[in-house]
Design goal:
Helix content is 41%, strand content 19%. The chain has 360 residues and is an alpha/beta fold. The chain binds 3-isopropylmalic acid (IPM) and magnesium ion (MG).
Length: 360
């Protein structure tokens, strides 16, 4: 059979800034064990600003739009904080251009890591298996904003705006996911104060009528933040807006022991975008200390959601579980001896290679 890039799955890889290149290298080790993928690297984030003045250069955007999937490590850093267009603006531009309105962030606690979760044993022993479904291309991240002066003093504002259509499509995504899980959704809003949340709640209620087998509950965001640490086992699918989802997913990640553990998939458009939920951690960049698991699991989500490779995706999870049982990066070491990012990647890739051979 003729083999060429047209017969390959084309992945655009955006390594980005800070620890981005280090963790991306570990995902590449894992991906290289599978046939049929072509990787294309593009500049994105702060490193793209340095080269072109733009965090999302047009060439990168066009490559991403034409790819079968986009795998992204992390962007940002203090070096670019004062830039007129920050790396984060590039990230929002990319999510928006890819129409990736649904951000799936699974927070799962691994048996071997229960000991290092900051929550008490009796709380984590009930288990943590939450799927945060975060709206990603609307709300206050994309609303009208501005600055001005009034009575000689500066002011600034950002606005939260959601349309019925935006709420409905993310709600449907969450309900469809809930059907494949334990059929429970908690929709998080601030409907006791915000008009946009009141619309959110009514649209979610309307969508729920099409899913009679899914149990829907609503919760105010302040209560949800508290309940997440009081008893995370009560949550399954957690549906929420862009900003609330940003905050609650960082909180949920800590239940698992480290923010370095959480992957994400951003879906909705033709091309899926996959990235760990953490940032570029400039303080530990270049020191071989980063946890590559969120990144490697993001690759796992890519295989599942963009390519229906459920078996390989599960084997990546299994490879990660196996790695954790014998080696840890410093963030999840619980004070014991730790390994570097590169070695952790080798162990995961080694496990994956063996599992691919054994599990046919
Ligand atoms: C995330 C990050 C981003 C966000 C930043 C880097 C713009 O915190 O993916 O959670 O706020 O969405
Ligand atoms: Mg965040």
């Amino acid at each position: 059979m003729h083999k060429g890039r047209q017969n390959m799955k084309n992945i655009v890889l955006l390594k980005g800034d800070g620890i981005g290149p280090e963790i991306a290298a570990q995902a590449v080790k894992v991906l290289s064990l599978l046939k049929g993928f072509a990787l294309q690297e593009e500049d994105f984030g702060g490193c793209a600003i340095d080269k072109t003045g733009e965090p999302l250069p047009n060439g990168t955007l066009q490559a991403a739009l034409g790819a079968d999937a986009v795998l992204l490590a992390a962007v940002g850093g203090p070096k670019w904080d004062a830039c007129p267009k920050r790396p984060e603006a590039g990230l929002l531009g990319l999510r928006s251009a890819l129409k990736a309105y649904a951000n799936l962030r699974p927070a799962v606690i691994y048996e071997d890591l229960k000991r290092i979760s900051p929550l008490k044993d009796e709380i984590v022993s009930r288990g943590v298996d939450i799927m945060v479904v975060r709206e990603l291309t609307g709300g206050i991240y994309f609303g009208k904003r501005g600055r001005g002066t009034e009575d000689g003093a500066e002011y600034a504002y950002d606005t939260e705006k959601y349309s019925e259509k935006e709420i409905e499509r993310i709600a449907r995504m969450a309900f469809d996911i809930a059907l494949k899980r334990s059929k429970r959704i908690c929709s998080v809003d601030k409907a006791n104060v915000l008009e946009s949340s009141r619309l959110w709640r009514s649209v979610v209620n309307k969508v729920s009528q099409d899913y009679p087998e899914v149990k829907l509950e609503h919760m105010y965001v302040d209560n949800a933040a508290m309940q997440l640490v009081r008893d995370p086992s009560q949550f399954d699918v957690l549906l929420t807006s862009n900003m609330f989802g940003d905050i609650l997913s960082d909180e949920a990640s800590m239940l698992t022991g480290s923010i370095g553990m959480l992957p994400s998939a951003s879906l909705g458009g033709k091309t899926g975008l996959y990235e760990p939920i953490h940032g570029s951690a400039p303080d530990i960049a270049g020191r071989d200390m980063a946890n590559p698991i969120g990144m490697v699991l993001s690759l796992g989500m890519m295989l599942k959601y963009s390519f229906n490779m459920d078996r390989e995706s599960l084997l990546i999870e299994k490879a990660v579980r196996g790695a954790i049982a014998c080696a840890r990066t410093i963030d999840i070491s619980g004070g014991c001896k730790s390994v570097g990012c590169d070695e952790m990647g080798d162990i995961i890739a080694g496990n994956f290679e063996r599992l691919l051979r054994e599990d046919v």
